[in-house]
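Structure first, sequence second, as always.
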């Protein structure tokens, strides 16, 4: 079993490392495991896709929202802007 929040955090890390294609692929895999109305439980069996634990799980959804937001920012060139701003703070 894995929690939905863990791969969401991995999506964010991959996106920030510049691995946008891998991040997007993982994000699509995770979101493909939602139920018929797009909700997630606390845990998902990676083999069967069965959702277990608390349902619906707020932390799972917050993690996915954060991952989607981070992926969108990185995809839109946010990293270059972030670097520019960060370098100005060091001067």
């Amino acid at each position: 079993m894995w929690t939905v929040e863990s791969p969401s955090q991995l999506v964010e890390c991959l996106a920030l490392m510049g691995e946008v294609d891998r991040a997007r692929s993982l994000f699509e895999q995770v979101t493909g495991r939602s139920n018929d109305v797009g909700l997630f439980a606390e845990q998902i069996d990676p083999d069967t896709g069965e959702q277990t634990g608390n349902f619906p799980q707020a932390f799972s959804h917050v993690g996915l929202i954060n991952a989607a937001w981070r992926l969108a920012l990185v995809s839109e060139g946010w990293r270059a802007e972030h670097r520019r701003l960060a370098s100005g703070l060091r001067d």
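Margin note: The chain has a mean pLDDT of 78.
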